Amino acid sequence: MKILKEAAKRTEEDRRNLTETVSCMIEEVRSKKDEALRKYNLQFDGCTRETLRISRKEIQKAYNQLTSQEIEDLRTAAANIRAFAKAQRETIRPLTNFSPMPGIFLGHRIIPVESCCCYVPGGNYPLYSTALMLIIPAKTAGVKRVAACSPVMKGTNEINPKTLVAMDIAGADEIYAVGGAQAVAAFSYGTEEIPAVDMIVGPGNRFVTEAKRQCYGQVGIDFVAGPSEVMVLADGSGTPEVVAADLLAQSEHDPNAKGILVTTDETFAKKVMAAVEKELCLLSTAEIAEKSWNTFGEVLLAESEEEMAELANAYAPEHLEINMQNPQEMADNLYNYGSLFIGENTAEVFGDYASGTNHTLPTLRAARYTGGVWVGTFLKTCTYQSMTKEAMKELAPLVARLAEGEGLMGHAEAAKVREKK
To answer: 318 catalytic, yes or no?
Structure first.
């Protein structure tokens, strides 16, 4: 492997300060509840709301601020996401009456969590697409209470109208104007106005991420996510400008985002780098995208397609694109990724918005052990069993011996006492 453009090493942030700051915020929300939320809303966003829950009147006002085309676009994207979520739900089925031996009957039920919070970030951009990606799978899974939250637009008392409409189209049961670590704490422990939930999903800044980490256990989470990333595998048969556009689409998320090109063609790599520089001269978000690309962008020259696959599987990127003449051959050799985009026609941004798959995906190599948010995120597979008297008498001596071998005599007795029935 040859490095044509090397990324800067990510420095460990001041974890101690972050941990302590978020811990104090969580404790303040636990003790002071809504008072703390109002304080942080004012401190961070200039929001003076007394009531945190968004009213139906506010939602209707948001609809009135959007064009008919904008509303239709959100509904079309939602329909694709919902259709795929429903198809996924149909693959997750209960198991009944499995019998490992006569008289023993085992099974499992598929049970949705009772409640969840879908955290939709604000920050640099109104990420209303995330509202669709989180709320729709939760509703499709059958979650009874789906709450959503997002910080208000800076200096106002209102959530971005597109985000609010997206939340409503997706089917949120409750919407709250609150964000940051304080929102995670509120939905984990509950306040006067916000009842606690069973699970919190969605991306956020490092304070949100740290709050999810600290509240995990009190509440379920999807995963702990870091800066966004894309890796493009290219054999040189594609279009340099297309690859450059995909790398910058990811880079513009924030200065810590990462775009990586892995190719077997050095000439193609240099053309892509030139195309990146050219597009940066035209891109309205170039200030962020250029900083991200210059700092964390990476271009690697692989000796073979086999080495490309090895690099991709070792990196386990959030988004993995295959820009090759025979993309399916490469796809068959890949197993660590958040979401896979096969062929030049399949832009990663399509998955971000409207093709139907989810864009809330694992980063920082977490794709080695988990996939992204999907309908199954909100489902529990819970086992059950029953057995006949004859099966109980046959199994009890085995269980008693195994328990005695571990020194758990109470366990052994619980098996033996049944033999006497």
So the answer is: yes
